[in-house]
Amino acid sequence: MTGSDGSGKSTLAASLVARLRTLAPVEQLYLGQSSGKIGDWIGTLPVIGKRFKAYLVRKSDKVHDQPGKPPGNVTALAIYLLSRWRAYKFRRLLAMARRGTLVVTDRFPQAEKPGFSIDGPQLAKTEGGNWWVRMLRQREHRLYEWMATHVPLLVIRLNVDVETAHARKPDHKISSLREKIAAIPHLHFNGAAILDLDGRDAADHVLESSMRAVTAALQVTGA
Fold first, then answer.
1. What are phi and psi of 106, to 5 degrees?
2. What pLDDT score was predicted for residue 54?
3. Confidence class for position 187, pLDDT limits 50, 70, 90
4. 2 in helix, strand or coil?
């Protein structure tokens, strides 16, 4: 499942899992880097929590807004560790698949375009830096290249316009939504089969179209 925030990914993922349980063992897995959830958890820590969360948000925004400047050592390490966390969850996905479980993911890592906002390597958005930053950038990129070699059975891409996305997610920066909406339609996910749907359509229509595509993909593989 891929698409901008506000495109309906989470709603569709939950509905798909409920329907697919009648066909096969199925699990849902979030494959974002989870920086928002981690930041919220840090914010609950006593004394330093809120200050440290604000510090991380400032650092993340700086990398996003000023990609031409190399990040500092601590910022680069934080970004790299978030990518390692995503890779850890990706290994969980592979383990579930090997057991015969059908995994419905919210988001999927790709190595075509940089940036956490579109599930690519974040350090690749930056340039230069000392040996430490350059090393972490190379290692992070190799992580995403490895994850991208595992082609999903089907990519369901929910497309939506900026106005709709922002109306559904008013707490999100409109500039970030615009960036995602512009980039995601051009991702190929290493040649995976892609079903493009309009995220503005009725939820029942989107679900039925997705179910037909998933069922057809499973029949082709003999699952």
1. -95, 105
2. 59
3. very high
4. strand
Q: Report pLDDT digits (tens) over 80-109.
A: 888 888 999 999 999 999 999 999 999 999
Specify whether the CB–CB gap between 158 and 6 falls below 8 A. Answer: no
| φ, ψ (nearest 5 deg) of residue 89 | -65, -35
Question: Letter for the amino acid at 111?
Answer: A
> What distance in Å separates the CA atoms of residue 154 and residue 220, rounded to the nearest whole number?
11
How far, CA to CA in Å, does 15 sit from each of 4, 9, 53, 83, 105? Answer: 18, 10, 33, 28, 12
Position 48 confidence tier, pLDDT thresholds 50, 70, 90: very low
Instruction: Quote the tokens at residue 165.
Output: 């996305």
Residues 6+ apart with CB under 8 A from 81: none
Residue closest to 117 by CA, chosen among 73, 82, 84: 82
In this model, does residue 214 exceed pLDDT 80?
A: yes
Q: Could you tell me the CA-to-CA distances from 216 to 16, 71, 116, 193, 212 in Å, in that order?
A: 14, 45, 31, 11, 6
What is the SS3 assignment for 198?
Answer: strand
Residue 38 burial by CB count (10 A; 0-12/13-18/19+): exposed, middle or buried? middle
Average of per-residue pLDDT across 196-204? 96
